[in-house]
Amino acid sequence: MPISPMDEYLAHQTTETFDRVFTSDRNFYDRYYFNLHASSDELFLVTGMGQYPNLEVTDAFVTVSHGAKQYTVRASRELGGDRLDTSVGPFRVEVLEGLRRLRVVCESTEWDVAFDLEWVGTVDALEEPVTLTRRGARVHMHTSRYAQVGTWEGTLTVAGQTYEVTPDRWKGARDHSWGVRPVGEAEAPGIRIKDMAGGEYGFFHAWMPMQFDDFMIKVMVDEDAEGNRLVEEAVKIYNSGDSRPAEQLGRAELAMEYLPGTREMARADVTLDPPGASPIHVVNTPLRTVYLKAGSGYVYDGTWGHGVYQGPLKVEGLVHDVGAPTERLDLAMLNETLCRFDLDTGEVGYGMHENMLIGTHHPTGFHSPDALAP
Question: How far apart are CA 19 and CA 7, in angstroms?
Fold first, then answer.
């Protein structure tokens, strides 16, 4: 393969050129994620872009919950050799200042979403614990990620309505993750079919970058069917320029309530137990949810998924009705739930409680794969 503009940088990690990654695993990926809200239930936007070097694909999407609908624009193209080219159809991401400022654009198309927005991080980027899980002998996930909360400025148009986005109230979170996780077309399970048929599988996931005026509280919990922790993190990060160090907040305990007949969160109570200090209690009240199964690519629908080859270039738009729980039943799987966060010390924040519950999870009362909340 040829050299590319990235090879000009003094940053090589292997003997290969930058268009080749350290592993030939088809599931290697590198992805940006962003969300945006107005510190209210007005709307909630999620956008992202990923590269899949061993599948030779790059794709991007935006999906917005607005009114009783969710509007999605998505694009995919062949990756090519230049990994510095972070554009896909109408989308592009520009790094203005590493780990601090980025520009994210979706040019106007025939569909219902367009934006030109600049992100500024209000806390330093937080590196998360590395995730490593195996299924049998094979690595299922081996990922690194950093996360950050911040503010937005620019313009956003959705469903014919244009918003002037200003940093006083338009906020959100972002992450950048890379490594190995399932992407592209589904693989044949092979011998893993034995575990899938005979074993009990469950996965509970919660990812919460809580943004307050002066700090972020970041909570992450992954558990198996029995409630055994696979990954956990709870930390308080003060805004950039504040010299106070990060504070570890101990084990996070989550008490989840779900909407009847669904697996959608109705409320969450989070208790943190910082060493040497009094417990911290947070009430998470949902305001609006983006359902990532509704066309974003995070969940493969047989046609579109992250890293799935769509040809040299493909751009399309979708609209989903999400006003009623019955309309959302097939979409509510990986849910980006915008919440108001109320601390027991009086502070109020906003942000996302990403939540997913697949299969069985005994601690929350889902004792079978098809169980729904009473």
Answer: 9
CA angle 351, 357, 358 (to 5 degrees): 145
Phi first, then psi, for residue 363 (nearest 5°) are: -60, -30
User: Of 264, 268, 253, nearest to 366 (Cα)?
Assistant: 264
**Nearest 5 degrees, angle CA 57-CA 58-CA 60?**
145
Q: How many CA atoms lie within 13 A of 283 on its CB side?
A: 8
Residue owning tokens 């709870």: 234
For residue 199, give the amino acid letter.
G
Q: Which residues contact 87 (CB under 8 A, 6 or more apart)?
A: none
Res 1 pLDDT > 70: no
Q: How far apart are CA 372 and CA 289, in angstroms?
A: 18
Residue 198's SS3 state is helix
- Alpha carbon 1 to its chain's center: 32
Mean pLDDT value of segment 66-79:
98
- At 294, phi and psi to the nearest 5? -85, 60
65, 41 contact by CB (below 8 A)? no
* Other C-beta atoms lying within 10 Å of the C-beta of residue 261: 12
Which residue is associated with the tokens 């079919």?
193
E strand spans, 297-333: 313-321
Q: What pTM value is reported for the model?
A: 0.96
